[in-house]
Specification:
Length: about 220
């Protein structure tokens, strides 16, 4: 009975550790970061600081992330739940991890900028070379792919945010000029510009176009 209990307890410990790391993986290894940043930037560009609320924006980001990551998660889940897999020893966990992480690595590689990946590969020789233990990194190592993917996502998010900000900035500028020209300097430009920006966003079906564009940005070759 004791021999049977040890693997069970060990499996529970490993499972608990994996669950604790999941929130960090969701932010660093999925589309959540880019989607949430873009949505928050759009909210700020519209000039409505509390609408939609942060909880709703994060919920939308999570839903879209699940949709985008569904093929990767299904493939990983199929490997992990394969009845032929054994979770009795650390070696078993290492073998299953090496197999299950492949779909995620492929996703990270596809959506990481080559220059970001090259930077972290080159930096490993400088950063890790100061330690006695010799460690080498390749383009498919998770320790290289994660930071490269995260930097790539942040860069793309702010590029999209900048492009989205421009038309709303033009509206703010035009409204401010008109108000000053009419001698109504005491009137806040946001009182007029905010409804105009909302009207423009609704008129072009902004939310649908934005969310669809974010999803399509993860289509290979799109």
């Amino acid at each position: 009975m004791t021999n049977l209990a040890i693997p069970t307890y060990f499996s529970l410990i490993v499972l608990s550790a994996i669950i604790a790391v999941i929130p960090f993986l969701v932010v660093a290894a999925t589309s959540f970061a880019k989607i949430s940043i873009v949505l928050f930037l759009v909210r700020n560009a519209l000039g409505i600081q509390q609408t939609p609320p942060g909880v709703l924006i994060n919920t939308v980001a999570i839903v879209l992330t699940l949709f985008i990551m569904a093929p990767v998660l299904r493939e990983m889940y199929a490997i992990i739940t394969d009845p032929s897999q054994s979770y009795a020893t650390i070696g078993d966990f290492e073998a299953i991890y090496a197999e299950a992480i492949i779909p995620l690595k492929n996703f990270l590689q596809v959506h990481s900028r080559p220059e970001a990946t090259d930077f972290f590969i080159e930096t490993t020789a400088l950063l890790w070379g100061q330690y006695e233990v010799e460690v080498t990194a390749t383009a498919d190592d998770i320790v290289v792919l994660l930071p490269a993917f995260l930097i790539s996502e942040l860069t793309r998010a702010f590029e999209i945010g900048f492009l989205l900000y421009l038309p709303f900035l033009v509206i703010d500028f035009v409204v401010s000029v008109i108000i000053v020209a009419m001698g109504m300097s005491m009137l806040s430009p946001t009182i007029i510009s905010t409804p105009l920006k909302l009207l423009l966003f609704v008129f072009i079906d902004g939310w649908s176009r934005l969310l669809q564009g974010l999803v399509l940005s993860y289509v290979p070759g799109a």
